[in-house]
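User: For my dataset I need records formatted as: sequence, then structure tokens, nothing else. Please produce one.
Assistant:
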Amino acid sequence: FPQWEGDGKWRQQCYVEGRALAASLPEGFYRVDTYGCYDNLDLWLGRSGLQFFSTTVEPSIMEFYPLVDVTRDVSSKPDLSNYALRGLLSVKYLLCPTDKQEELEGKMGEGWQLYATQGSYAIYENENWLPMGFTYDSYITQKDFEAVPKAARSNLLLKAMVLSEEQIERYSGLLGELAESERNARTYDAYVQDVQARRKTAASSFKADNYGFTAHIQLQRDGLVFFSVPWSEGFTATVNGEEAPVEKVSNGMMAIPAPAGECVIRVDYHTPGLGQSAAVAGACLAVYAVYLGVLRAGKKKKTA
């Protein structure tokens, strides 16, 4: 009964209004954020969401979230004060029940504008959202990144990509080390400037499907294209049809090196070990089929 009381509006907000709410949102790929909504509203909308409840996640997200001051157990609910995380992770819209609008507006801070009202939901648009897929001019070492207070690390990730020592050696010609003075520029105005700088190289299109995603991007020079997609060994990539490495950067996200000019980046996911498992299963079935054939042949002989 307490659960029923707490979830009294669940059916109305998700099941009944979910389709109309989804239809009111523009086409294209972006993430949504929620405030005061029921868990996993993004699933009803067919969108990637920042706040969700799930038993399983890609393990690298468990590495990323704690380092940017987000608690991750069976849910992900970044605090509204972590505004830079919204820009970094391509959050374009924030959804809130209209009966909690006043409460939200007292907490949300700068950079949000009311986009529309749909049913019992208010939709706010993030003025400082970043499209999926963009490049950096600078990198920062893991040691220097962790020297910054957790609450400010999301801001720092809009200035520079965190690289390992091996990656720094490999891509030193593409990125320069972030100046120490820049590491401390973590005001809201600096955040807006960093978002604008990242937008200049953002992908013109990003489309996800059941197998991975495709991005089109125009680069003035060679660079590492960052995607806020949790890294996994199962990802493979091509750039203009040529194989390219999928680098694990910024404590759990991915980046793909791409040359200057027009690039089509294709990333596919295959569950590690699934092919081998299927081969073994196929072999077992083949042996079993032979075994059944032998049994049947034996029964026919006995009958005769």
